[in-house]
Design brief:
about 190 residues; mainly beta; four-stranded antiparallel β-sheet; 15 strands; about 50% strand; globular
Length: about 190
């Protein structure tokens, strides 16, 4: 996929334009290769509810089959290793100027669960402001969420289709902006 002013286009594979939001922050493909997921902004104004576009990649011509509301300004999305859960971090007004009437002190963590060929919302939690990213651990048992101004990583435990704040915070020396997790190592093997 690549970003275009009028949507996401997949020219390299099919030459077919797919309807997704014009400002896309993250594109993922589910582990089974059936769905493309695009978190995007409508006008990018920090006020409107933005969404996840779900794209059917198995169709003869890939097409958007669902739009799932996330919150305002989805900064990043991440799939659990098994592809069953999706975590989205949304600004929800925390990146607006403090004098802005729509400013909020907290951002949001939205958890979605895969149901067939789409994802459904299961949970929303208030989290520390300006979360740049979230990532599941290789075993899928924890979710790590960054906070720019707090210079920390927050650890959440995964329980079915929900997460719980462990209250564990890891301080980092700078403002975290990017991270990823690798697959869980095989028992007895060192990396």
């Amino acid at each position: 996929f690549f970003q275009a002013e009028d949507g996401i286009r997949d020219k390299l594979v099919t030459g077919v334009q797919t309807c997704a939001l014009p400002i896309s922050y993250r594109c993922l493909i589910t582990p089974d290769g059936q769905l493309g997921l695009v978190a995007g902004l409508g006008f990018g104004n920090g006020v409107d509810i933005d969404e996840l576009s779900v794209i059917d990649l198995r169709a003869r011509e890939p097409r958007t089959i669902d739009h799932v509301p996330l919150g305002t300004v989805p900064e990043s999305i991440e799939l659990s290793p098994d592809g069953r859960l999706l975590a989205a971090v949304v600004m929800d007004g925390c990146s607006l100027a403090p004098e802005d009437p729509l400013h909020r002190d907290k951002a949001g963590l939205v958890i979605l669960e895969r149901k067939g060929r789409t994802f459904v919302r299961r949970q929303r939690l208030d989290i520390a402001p300006i979360p740049e990213n979230a990532v599941f651990t290789g075993d899928g048992r924890h979710l790590v969420v960054q906070s720019h101004p707090e210079r920390s990583l927050a650890i959440y435990s995964v329980h079915g289709s929900r997460v719980r704040d462990t209250r564990l915070r890891i301080a980092v020396p700078g403002m975290p902006s990017s991270m990823c997790a690798g697959p869980r190592p095989e028992p007895g093997r060192r990396r």
